[in-house]
Amino acid sequence: MAKKSSIRYFTHEQKKRFLRTLRDSKKAWRDYFMFNLMLNTGLRLAETVNLDVKNIFNGYSAKEVLEIQGKGDRIRQIPLNKAIRSHMERYLRQKRVHREDIGLLSSLFLSRNHRRITKRAVQLNFDRWIKASDIEGKYSPHSLRHTVGTELMKKTNNIRKIQEFLGQRR
Question: Most buried among 42, 55, 138, 148, by the most CB within 10 A?
Fold first, then answer.
């Protein structure tokens, strides 16, 4: 019997509750930025953990376009709105406060051990924040990508544009 595949995505209310829970926690500054970035860009988990400071910051300010090398080594460009660019700059200031390296070649997201965060650590943190947000059901970080795709579909009804934005193969 074939396994039934269901696409899991957040409703607007779940998304707001999830981000509010992260924002309101003093310990979640890294996770708040990471998951908010994923919800604004549709980044895959592997793409997110592989980001370096140079991917979002040009040395003076947040970049307006995020260049991602995704699956199949294809490069895609994701426009970044003013709100997420402002959030990027706040995140980098927080990294300085926490004495984390913000050199252009350093990892954007670090673990408690000051090493690049792993996909598994992000998954565990995600599960913890889902539970803290009182969101019922089984979700994964990939659900954030599905949320972006679903929201774009509701706005544009253009599957080709969404595939291009998300870097899906055609």
Answer: 42
In angstroms, the Cα distances linking 70 to 29, 61, 76, 169 are: 26, 24, 7, 11
φ, ψ (nearest 5 deg) of residue 66: -95, 120
CA atoms of 10 and 146, how far apart (whole Å): 8
Two structure tokens written together for 44? 């895959």
Least confident range from 35-44, 49-58, 94-103, 123-132: namely: 94-103
- The average confidence (pLDDT) of the chain is 88
Of the pLDDT bands very low, low, confident and very high (cuts 50, 70, 90), residue 64 is: very high
Looking at the domain covering 12-166, what would its CATH class be? mainly alpha
pLDDT score of 26 more than 80: yes
Tally of helices (H runs) and strands (E runs) in the chain: 8, 2
Burial of 50 (0-12, 13-18, 19+ CB in 10 A): middle
Phi, psi of 40 (to 5 degrees): -95, -20
